[in-house]
């Protein structure tokens, strides 16, 4: 999936949970958006990879694309790192949800993900799409509708 779709996935993943928690909505959603971009640090052409080129190239050289950074191991390690860096639960949970949304979206692509890395098993949904094709446009449209619908919860919070 493209960075735009991942970004929308992270926003959608967090915004639909706004009414179920007491986190600051904008902080929670922002954390979701950032978390949704993190797994593609393994790809130097990605939104986050372009920002951290050196780190991105190193991770790509060591592990390749869509391996460790698209796994449960990465979720656990990043969750521990974020918990070490901040005591704000909204940020930690938001980043986690963003990363989960990323893995779900990439599992819906033909290449799938190495969810159980270091096992080489590729995980993908039975129905997949290609990055950048019409299927992704449909996913993006659905995510946008979700975000639009649930943005009322954000408004209610701040009114
Ligand atoms: Zn990815």
Automatic annotation (TrEMBL):
One of its GO terms (molecular function) is hydrolase activity. It holds the Pfam family YdjM. InterPro entries: YdjM (IPR016956), YdjM-like (IPR007404). Keywords: Hydrolase, Membrane, Transmembrane, Transmembrane helix. This is Metal-dependent hydrolase. The chain crosses the membrane at residues 67-85.
């Amino acid at each position: 999936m493209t960075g735009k779709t991942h970004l929308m996935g992270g926003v959608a993943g967090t915004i639909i949970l706004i009414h179920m928690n007491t986190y600051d909505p904008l902080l929670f959603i922002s954390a979701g958006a950032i978390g949704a971009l993190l797994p593609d640090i393994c790809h130097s052409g990605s939104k986050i990879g372009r920002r951290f080129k050196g780190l991105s190239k190193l991770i790509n050289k060591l592990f390749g694309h869509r391996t460790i950074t698209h796994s449960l191991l990465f979720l656990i390690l990043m969750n521990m790192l974020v918990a070490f860096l901040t005591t704000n639960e909204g940020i930690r949970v938001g980043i986690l949800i963003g990363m989960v949304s990323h893995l779900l979206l990439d599992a819906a692509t033909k290449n799938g993900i190495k969810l159980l890395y270091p096992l080489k098993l590729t995980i993908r949904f039975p129905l997949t799409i290609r990055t950048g094709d019409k299927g992704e446009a449909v996913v993006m449209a659905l995510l946008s509708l979700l975000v639009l619908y649930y943005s009322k919860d954000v408004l209610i919070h701040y009114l």
